[in-house]
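Figure 2 data, in text form.
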Amino acid sequence: MDNALAFGAASGQAARVDAVFLLILVIGVFFFFLTQGMLIYFAVKYRRRLPGRDNETPAITGSPLLEFLWILIPSIVVVVIFYYGWRVYTDQRIPVAGATEVYVNARQWLYEIKYPDGRTAVNEIRVPSGKPVKFILSASDVLHGFYLPDFRVKMDMIPGRVTSLWVQPERPGSYQIFCTVYCGTGHSNMLARLIVMPPNEYAAWAAHGEGGAGEGKEHEPLAVRGERVAKNAGCLNCHAIGGAVKIGPGWKGLFGSNVLLEGGKTVTADEEYLRESIVDPGAKIVKGFPNVMPTYKASIPPEDVNAVVEYLKTLK
């Protein structure tokens, strides 16, 4: 086992976050003792003498080399801390390909879990160890938080938006999930568990739908449901899933691609972009296409919007 994992870190990512803070701590302690040691040394060396003794300190005219070094060295230290922290941050924000996806919706005062194959649960998420997991987060009422202290990750869950974070659990076990935003009188009881299972046990559980509180046994997969919703809503009349382009942008290969907007700006077609394009299609207009799509904010429930997004992700 990685030594870092023995100190409460449940993944390699968490160990790297700990390393950033350890680096800052070591640098801080070093300079603390250096500056305080020099302070004590000079206080003793240049203390007031007894009457009759030499009380004068030597003339100090300055040292350009010393002044240069005490500007250069702290600057280098700050840049090193920033660069190391930035690398760890970007690693946590950009999910790896092939991650297991789990939809998590927060509301007062619980977490609703939905897996791509249609299984559901409340306040309990099960994932395999040794594989990356991407949490796709939303909220139904007020601002909530999704915090996994053992993995050193946290993300806000915002009504009307989709956020995400990813982890790669390294060891099986049960880990606490906290809400980090005061969301009402039941905030302190808004707790959930992340259960990391060995891959073979997870595969068996996923196949039989066993072991979860409040799970659904026979549910329509999200992508299948999304295809049905898209067809019923008439989306395929304007959006092609292959072949000639219709009135609106084509859906094939859309997820994860770079989309050129009117005005020259480019955005990545992630979950939040796709969700926004369904509920507020006028927010970002794709270059070369008219702004004629109606909003589906009131006609398609949020869970069906998530299903359509999941369907779009299958059109590669």
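Caption note: The mean pLDDT is 83.
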